[in-house]
Amino acid sequence: MNTEMTTTTAPAPTGTTLLDVRGVTMRFGGLTAVNNVDLTVSEGEIIGLIGPNGAGKTTFFNCLTGLYVPTEGTVSYKGNLLPPKPHRVTQAGIARTFQNIRLFANMTVLENVLVGRHSRTKEGLFSAILRGPGYRRAESESHDRAMELLEFTGLAAKADHLARNLPYGEQRKLEIARALASDPGLLLLDEPTAGMNPQETRAAEELVFAIRDRGIAILVIEHDMRFIFNLCDRTAVLVQGQKIVEGDRETVQNDERVITAYLGAPLEGTGAAASTEADQ
Ligand SMILES: Nc1ncnc2c1ncn2[C@@H]1O[C@H](COP(=O)(O)OP(=O)(O)OP(=O)(O)O)[C@@H](O)[C@H]1O
């Protein structure tokens, strides 16, 4: 298998800030899961978020997407403060996937993507009941867009399959297709390669680059260091809820605090990935 990385030409980051997180803190009773974290993501960027188990990464995502109301801090998107309500966050232009796959198992692949389209259709309840021309046009456009996303993610041939019958790697892709259906400017991926085999992981890397090449910025949580360092322009490291360092590959790999946080395991991008590659 060719394991060379895709060399797609990245659109040069324009510098326009999409996501601007300031001082986000999330406390659960006496536990501070996220502690005063700042983070920005600009157009054209792929940003990594890493940290040991329980560091607060998913909690941080939940604060960005309105699932949690941060105890302190603000989240802005394109200069506007985001209310902590998931549907408002999606409408603003942020989509996400979840660590544990959340598909509608008994719906088809196409239907799952159409659900993700919901936030972008304007036709209301009465229009849907009457099935007037506006509704039919919107339905047809949604169908075409959903099929285009299934082509993009390599799932078009399985549009009519039930989601639960897809192999694991394709379920993860379907989650991404569904997230893309809301036409986001920023996509948050929570451990997109969890449970994937090496081939699926490499394909996921290619997909992330392809998404970025469509002009969508990406913030990704991942434990696979090779994946992170192959993909990301910058990586932020969370430890016990605090961002201890942020920077390029060398900055993160050489930071003593990061090495200590990972109990001395070398962060050379070859840890878990090296053994899996050898298995190919
Ligand atoms: N709803 C909640 N109520 C109470 N504590 C929570 C809640 N959600 C998360 N926590 C705690 O917050 C801390 C951070 O958890 P979180 O899942 O965000 O970490 P993580 O970095 O995503 O971990 P992993 O890499 O294992 O997924 C943990 O101690 C967790 O037990």
UniProtKB/TrEMBL annotation:
The keyword ATP-binding applies. InterPro entries: AAA+_ATPase, ABC_AA/LPS_Transport, ABC_transporter-like_ATP-bd, BCA_ABC_TP_C, P-loop_NTPase. Pfam families: ABC_tran (PF00005), BCA_ABC_TP_C (PF12399). Residues 19-265 form the ABC transporter domain. Keywords: ATP-binding, Nucleotide-binding, Transport. SMART domains: AAA. One of its GO terms (biological process) is L-isoleucine import across plasma membrane. GO terms for molecular function: ATP binding; ATP hydrolysis activity; L-isoleucine transmembrane transporter activity; L-phenylalanine transmembrane transporter activity; L-valine transmembrane transporter activity. Gene3D superfamilies: P-loop containing nucleotide triphosphate hydrolases (3.40.50.300). SUPFAM superfamilies: P-loop containing nucleoside triphosphate hydrolases. GO terms for cellular component: plasma membrane. The keyword Transport applies. This is ABC transporter ATP-binding protein.
